[in-house]
Amino acid sequence: MFGNLHEWAVELLALVLMGSAIKLMDDQLDAEYDICRGERTLAVKLGRALLPYTLVLTVLALYLQPVLTTAVFFGSYAVGMFTRWQEKLPTRVPAYVEIFMVIGLSMLLTGWQTAVWGLTFMALVDWVDDLTDATLDKVSGQDNLVLRIGWIETSLLVLLVLCVAVLLNFFATATGLIALAMLTILSELTTAKIWQGEDNNKNILG
To answer: In 3-state terms, what secondary structure has residue 193?
Structure first.
């Protein structure tokens, strides 16, 4: 019993660490938009120190749980390029080429089932975030799935990827959702409010 609890705790910690690394990188990329939304995230506060801290978090996560965290990392990488799938990247290839390459690499390293789980779980996280931040993203001009296809359609996609993730790995999905809740709390505690944005209850489709 306690052995299983220890394994679960290690898995949870690994997902929190990898999630923290991904969150820091994402906040760094979106720093200008976050400022427009009246938020100063931890990534902005860290400045040049962001890279080493992110690398340390990633290495620790991979050490604790190499398979799941690898799938989560590559899943996040692929999902992050979904909205710009036609864009030419610094590698001089369209984003969709890198998306397929990353998914293929994840399948090679973790197995197809875990790789698809990582992809669907990170899509779940990303699209739920789009639902939550739709109003503020509209104000700041940031790309958002809800603003492009609608609230109902995005909600249906969230339900779809949630079902797939649960079917592929129920326990990892449950652990990932707990890790997400913990990261959300940490994010709120480490983000400074510069100014208060518009009422979050405003109808973005109106």
So the answer is: strand
What pLDDT tens digit does each residue of the chain (206 aa) get?
455 788 899 999 999 999 999 999 888 877 777 666 667 777 777 888 888 999 999 999 999 999 999 999 999 999 988 877 677 767 777 878 888 999 999 999 999 999 999 999 999 999 998 888 777 667 666 777 777 888 889 899 999 999 999 999 999 999 999 999 999 998 888 777 665 544 444 443 34
| Nearest-angstrom CA–CA distance, 56 and 52 | 6
Number of domains observed in the structure of the chain: 1
Residue-wise burial string across 167-195, b where 16 or more C-beta atoms lie within 10 A, e elsewhere: ebbeebbebbbebbebbeeebeeebeeee
Q: What is the pTM of this model?
A: 0.83
Residue-wise DSSP of 135-181: HHHHHHT---HHHHH-HHHHHHHHHHHHHHHHHH-HHHHHHHHHHHH
Q: Please give the residue range of the domain that contains residue 7.
A: 2-193
